[in-house]
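Lab manual, section 2.4: Encoding a predicted structure.

Procedure: take the sequence of the chain (226 residues), apply the prediction step described in section 2.3, and record the output as structure tokens. A sample record is shown.
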Amino acid sequence: MTETIPDLAQMGLPYPKAILFDWDNTLVDTWPVITEALNATRTAFGLETWTLAEARVKSARALRVSFPEWFGDEWERAKDIYYEHFASIHCQRLAVMAQAEELLAFLHDKDIPLFVVSNKRNIYLQAEMTYLGWDKYFKRAVGSGDSPTDKPAREPVELALSAVGLQADDPSIWFVGDTYADVECALRAGCLPVLVHDSRAAGQFGVKAFFGDCHTMKTALYNWSS
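Recorded output:
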């Protein structure tokens, strides 16, 4: 089937002054790793394990929000178990979303400032970026705990943009992600929410800026910039 490339100008979208990216499952596929680490933690507490599909639905929020609900007063011990298991496997099992690096390289060549805003700890973000050789593409990566509140609050966006003197509340700054937490973060920060990979989510969340994958996003921006 012929791929449909959206005409961004006709859609009335602003050309991006800067782009903030979610990390997990926007640029890299980490759900298998996340699910395995969650299940190791849940098993240690005698809880039922989750399928990958269940983990995707139930663990979209920041760890420091969800773990106290799941593990109560022992949530910090659960956090340690989770991160110990995660750290042992996350780089080796990291999978890149199709055409993600091509998209980043294109945007970098266009001198569009790029950032990461994630609810993953920065130590793991930096390790994964270095492992992939992608740290050269980003002006700053903001992870869980780097600002007083995590995504979907606006503070991580403000912290990221401050690296190059940009301000939030600018609809020409795109926030690209794959979940409602990314959409909510974009809206709270006054940026343009953009979704990739899941057209159903775009319809469900009322997001008009949507790309089926990283290649489609790159091609649409290439056509516009040409």
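Check your result against the sample. The chain has two domains: 18-29+95-225, 31-89.
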